[in-house]
TrEMBL record:
InterPro entries: L-rhamnose_isomerase, Rhamnose_iso-rel, Xyl_isomerase-like_sf, Xyl_isomerase-like_TIM-brl. It comes from Amycolatopsis marina. SUPFAM superfamilies: Xylose isomerase-like (SSF51658). The keyword Manganese applies. Residues 72-250 form the Xylose isomerase-like TIM barrel domain. PANTHER family: L-RHAMNOSE ISOMERASE. Keywords: Isomerase, Manganese, Metal-binding. GO terms for molecular function: L-rhamnose isomerase activity; metal ion binding. GO terms for biological process: L-lyxose metabolic process; rhamnose catabolic process. It comes from the Bacteria. The keyword Isomerase applies. This is L-rhamnose isomerase / sugar isomerase.
Length: 388
């Protein structure tokens, strides 16, 4: 069995990035339910991310979305993050909320619109230079609603050309993470629908282009851990957008819908050496908390990732290999299931105490009075929410 203190040692080094947009108001196309105490600007979103880090100890960075988090001085934003105890992580360009993008961004048939979208990506890399961010997270809403609407292959060519310009602007230490999603907002064909399309573009672009796996972006029944294992083997797994789904891109808390799937994904990460801080696998959350309070939901999400990771680290790999080599199907499966069935909460409580944290981050947050404090402080301002 893996050694308890070694497991804790690895868990200390796993960092889980929170998304700035999860702290703002969000909703569905039916209704956005406004909450109290919501951040009024990017600075306050960073404060909330720092709060999540303060209680969990393993969420030291926050991803930003531009222009939702646009500010006049990014050095000041980065300094603000530093003072709060976190850093600015991935920069997410937004090329889906402008009238010009009705027919797409990097794949748009109009070269002027493509230039505008590429220009926004380049601006985001300028921001990364200032904030010290490593990753440009690229998700495109590009696609087609109707067969015949545009040429599928011409769009791939435009995509290739546009991504090349962006890729060539990346600095030595910077990367482009290309996210895929099989539908929505386009419903007939999406221009980067699956890991294979993303992987093909990344291969052509070069080693700084890596695939980003959003766990909510697959058809029901897709074996996500297979994708993870394959991309990891090929050295092209840039990271995750974690969330859970019952139906589509639900963006619910990671580990809520199917903790066993999350465990299987994390097991492939462990088997593939993806927890090594040098592996370059970024663990990011991409969630929306439409009806539940946001900060506790993000604390819970970080804990859920930690629990799945702890269980994956507890897999008895020697026993697993022995059973696999002996062709013992049931024993091999039992080794995995045993690890999944282990209650790792005492181990994680101990780890938190080792780190000088409260063993129960959610209870500690509620006791802290922080929710009442931000409710009082943040009255009268317009909340900076999803799509703000
Ligand atoms: C969209 O479905 C993707 O998951 C993107 O990562 C997106 O930028 C993010 O969810 C914010 O809306
Ligand atoms: Zn995502
Ligand atoms: Zn998504
Ligand atoms: Zn999602």
């Amino acid at each position: 069995m893996p050694d308890r203190s070694a497991v804790k040692g690895v868990l200390r080094t796993q960092h889980i990035e929170t998304p700035s947009w999860a702290f703002g108001n969000s909703g569905t196309r039916f209704k956005v339910f406004a909450q109290e105490g919501i951040p009024r600007d990017a600075f306050e979103k960073i404060d909330d991310a720092a709060t999540v880090h303060r209680f969990t100890g393993v969420a030291p960075s926050v991803a930003v979305h531009i222009p939702w988090d646009a500010v006049s001085d990014y050095a000041e934003l980065a300094q603000h993050a530093k003072n709060a105890g976190v850093t600015i992580g991935a920069v997410n360009p937004n090329v889906f909320q402008d009238d010009d993008y009705r027919l797409g961004s990097l794949c748009n048939p109009d070269p002027a619109v493509r230039r505008k979208a590429v220009g926004h990506f380049l601006e985001c890399i300028d921001i990364m230079d200032v904030t010290g961010s490593r990753d440009l997270s690229v998700w495109l809403a590009d696609g087609l609603n109707y067969p015949g609407q545009d040429s599928i292959s011409a769009r791939q060519e435009r995509l290739e050309e546009s991504l090349r310009v962006v890729y060539d602007r990346l600095g030595e230490q910077q990367r482009m993470l290309l996210e895929y999603k099989f539908f929505e907002p386009a419903f007939y064909a999406t221009d980067v629908p699956d890991w294979g399309t993303s992987y093909a573009h990344c291969l052509e672009l070069g080693p700084k282009a890596q695939v980003l796996v959003d766990t909510g972006h697959h058809a029901p029944g897709t074996n996500i851990e297979f994708i993870v294992a394959l991309l990891r083997r090929k050295g092209r797994l840039g990271g995750f957008h974690f969330n859970s789904r019952f139906y589509a891109d639900d963006d619910l808390m990671v580990g809520a819908a199917d903790p066993y799937q999350l465990f299987r994904i994390m097991s492939e990460i462990v088997f593939g050496g993806g927890l090594d801080p040098n592996s370059g696998v970024a663990f990011m959350l991409d969630q929306c908390h439409n009806i539940e309070p946001k900060i506790p939901a993000l604390i819970r999400s970080v804990m859920n990732v930690q629990e799945a990771t702890a269980k994956a680290l507890l897999v008895d790999t020697d026993a697993l290999r022995t059973a696999q080599q002996a062709g013992d199907v049931l024993d091999a499966n039992a080794v995995l299931v045993d690890a999944f069935a282990t209650d790792v909460r005492p181990l994680l409580a101990e780890l938190r105490e080792d780190m000088g944290l409260d063993p129960d981050p959610i209870a500690a947050y509620h006791r802290s009075g922080h929710a009442a404090k931000i409710r009082a402080e943040r009255v009268g301002g317009a909340a900076a929410g999803w799509g703000a």
